[in-house]
Amino acid sequence: MYLSELVRVNSRFHRSIHLPSDWSNSSAVESYVVTPEAREFARELAQSLGDEYGSRAWTLVGPYGCGKSAFCVMVADLLCREVPIHPVARELRRSVQIGKPLKPILLTGHRGPLNEALVDGLRSSRLLENDNSSLIHSSDDVWRLYEQGIEAAISQGYGGLLLIIDEFGKFLEYASLHPEHEDLFVLQLLAEGAARYPGQFLMLLVLHSSFANYLPLTATRALRDEWQKIQGRFTEHAFHLPTS
User: For residue 218, with 0-12 CB atoms within 10 Å meaning exposed, 13-18 middle and 19 or more buried, which class applies?
Assistant: First the structure.
């Protein structure tokens, strides 16, 4: 008798998570195994959303394969559905006062300009009016568009916006290769803006290491300090591999 005759791996676990599509896939949501650490961090995120003095700009840092993307699927389920699919998300929604579901903007990082991806996320979520996609958006432009997006989401009956960027390190890799024109200042504006919108805007960046570790050894001290200053606007949570 072969092991394959005794054990079958659920097809959901044959591939990696793709956040933008899998959050709406009920089987992908339901199959996530929630560790005690993941449950408590999800609760902390939900509580911080409506806390006037809480952090609403987070980074989730952890090694490859520890379940960060799958966790984000559950967070989107928790915060963006009236009745979550995952049983743990349903339990947390009953115990934490969240209010109306948020409109999700769920992105996966790639080696390209961050500002363009952020605007594309708003556009894909149908939160932009009269936007000219040929325009080059500055960091200030992007934040103004996100303020409009928050207002548009509320007018559509949502509580506000949830922005999650999975594989965010890909954007940092691109920025490290193009420091002359790829400015991460938009992150500072988004983090500061989140602080001014309790209950209406929460953002989570998912990556494998701290910002400065994505810079080459040849990067200037000034650039390294600038990236560390921007990361300082976010509350970091270290995500660990489950022990069992």
Answer: exposed
pLDDT digits (tens, 9 = 90+) for 19-64: 988 888 888 898 889 999 999 999 999 999 989 888 999 999 999 8
Strand runs labelled E in 28-160:
57-61, 103-108
Nearest to 152 by CA among 200, 80, 83: 200
Beta bridge partners of 203: 57, 163
In angstroms, the CA 207 to CA 205 distance is 7
- pLDDT tens-digit series, residues 176-230: 999 877 889 999 999 999 999 999 999 999 999 999 999 999 999 999 999 999 9
Give the 3-state secondary structure of residue 79: helix
182, amino acid identity: E
CA atoms within 13 A on the CB side of 150: 19
